[in-house]
Amino acid sequence: MLIRAYEERLALMQQNNGVPGTCTSVGQEACAVGVLGALDSRDRIITNHRSAAHLLARGADPGRLMAEVLGRVDGYCGGHSGSLHVSARELGVVLTSTIVGGGLSLAPGVALAQKMGQGEEGGVVVVFFGDGAACEGILHESLNLAVQWQLPLLFVCENNQWQAYVHRLETMADDAIYRWACGHGLDTQRIDGNDSDLVLEAARQAVGAIRADGRPRFLELLTYRQRGHLEPDDLAYVDQVERQRWLKRDPIALMQARLKAEGLLQDKELRTIEEQIHRQTDTAQAFAEASPWPDPQKLLQHVYAG
Amino acid sequence: MSILNVEQAINQALQEEMHRDSRVMVMGEGVAKSRAALLASFGPQRVRNTPLAEAVISGTAVGAAATGLRPVVDLLFAPFLTYAMDALVNSAGKLRYLSGGQHEFPLVTLSMTGAGWCVGAQHNHNLEAMFVHAPGLKVVMPSTPADFKGLIKTAIRDNNPVLVFTDLSLLHASGEVPDETEFLVPLGKAAVSREGTDVTLVSYAKTVNICLESAKQLEEFGISAEVIDLRSLKPLDEETVLRSVRKTGRLVIVQEASGLCGMAAEIAALAVTRAFEALRAPVVRLTGPDAPAAASWVLEQATVPTAGKIVQAVREMLPHAAPVVRQQIVQPA
Ligand SMILES: Cc1ncc(C[n+]2csc(CCOP(=O)(O)OP(=O)(O)O)c2C)c(N)n1
Ligand SMILES: [Mg+2]
């Protein structure tokens, strides 16, 4: 819910205050919450342009994240990144590339370092990528190497039906991405990515198995990008019938309904949570907007390591 | 003549060339949506959305070009060219030569770059010089809608691979564009965008406009600046640059791309090796730094050449130039 509120606030700011556009994960929150729920502090994450949910589910501070989007000095990358390549090593979000498929090329290396003793004992590496990224040839290079070298790597494909402004079925001969992975001889699963419980359960299983035998696993999470590719977006190109079908399966609404049905969440409690999140987003926005711009004198800092 | 912006000029060039030659086709991620008018005119066989797969998009273009088609590939943002680089650099640029001249690769790539959108270096990287460095490839980076139309049309008709770079901030810049379907701008021909006698400002793409703005400001100091728009980076119009440098004796080269091994270095070397005797001041390069473009607006803008920096550089070359004082004739009482 925090993720949703954060991203909707940013979208509003983008409409009103000329804030740079972002790729939101609205509609895909259960993927992030479920997978990250299965990880612990030993584990490392590689993400992409659509990273806000991954970062927030990993415990990122919404104020610092927003400051980064605004290009301010208190952002996780000092304003250098903007929204598209936010990494935060303090959170174990080790590398983020907005080059589609970029993360897939880096993941075997991160997992190799983990395997060769450069991470915390028992740590697992998770790489998030989209259905579009799955079309880059690097997916297969990455899978083959991870299997052959027995790397502790979890591939998580968030299949959100869209590859920027093109529907995935227009670019893929097969309807299922997990089958592409199957050919490489690793355990794969396709699950409903809008059901946070299912995602959590599948991710726990996969991560447990990786910790046990050190071999890679693959999850395809079926989900839907509810907002545009990049804010703002009029969605004129979107099949509304499909969109409505997915909106009825909104991951947050599904979770709330289930919790209520099980008697674990009362309306009053929900309102309290909503209010709390609203305050949190207000604080984040105030923090981000008050954060100073980076100093142009320090432009060349961080180009090379010392 | 019509008033078109750069985006419209590019689409008009594609439309006309696809109409003229049925071997011309367009492909890329989302082109059937972003260039919907082409799809309407020529159908899905010749206007193809591709998967997200730059290596095979460019490889397909190279293979198809060698065997009869004339593909135009839209690779969106210039940094994505690095995925496409193998097919372009190692195949399109080399296999004609290595085959003893058996093949031709009539293909065009389109991609965008440039500061102004706060997207950071994985979308904003002026890497045109990398391709200038690669044998067998031609590179153009125009600054006006008319040149976009004329150069893209010529590029499509050329039998070599041509990379066309578009500065993002020019997309909505408008200008007069000839309507004729035979309006062509030759590759390898620079434009003298403004004539002058004291200093030569050489540039390409968006920064040409900044040079023109500087030239106007320099008038206030009694300095007459000539502005040259390279348009083609390879082949390079050496004669137009040399003629100007021999006339003015002073050379400032302006580019947004970083300086090391870039176009500005090439132009400086050209002037020093072939017009040394004419130079009356050291050559000045105003370029971006050896740093990736940051997303933050202030950091991004700090790297961009501005009219202020150009004017200052020129005034340091011509320290005796003083502000022009317009005389007031005082009538006797
Ligand atoms: C190599 C490369 N090609 C194209 C792009 C432009 N682009 C950015 S995101 C995107 C869509 C990616 O689709 P997918 O992998 O499914 O991720 P999603 O955006 O759906 O999360 C595209 C085409 C890019 N950033 N990098
Ligand atoms: Mg997708």
Automatic annotation (TrEMBL), chain B:
Pfam families to which the protein is assigned, alphabetical: Transket_pyr, Transketolase_C
InterPro entries for the chain: THDP-binding, Transketo_C/PFOR_II, Transketolase-like_Pyr-bd, Transketolase_C
Transketolase-like pyrimidine-binding domain boundaries: 4-173
Tagged with keyword Protease: no
Swiss-Prot/TrEMBL cofactor(s): thiamine diphosphate
Coiled-coil ranges from the UniProt annotation: none
Gene Ontology MF: a single term: oxidoreductase activity
Keywords annotated in UniProt: Oxidoreductase, Pyruvate, Thiamine pyrophosphate
Name under which the protein is recorded: Branched-chain alpha-keto acid dehydrogenase E1 component beta chain
Lineage start: Bacteria, Pseudomonadati, Pseudomonadota, Gammaproteobacteria, Pseudomonadales
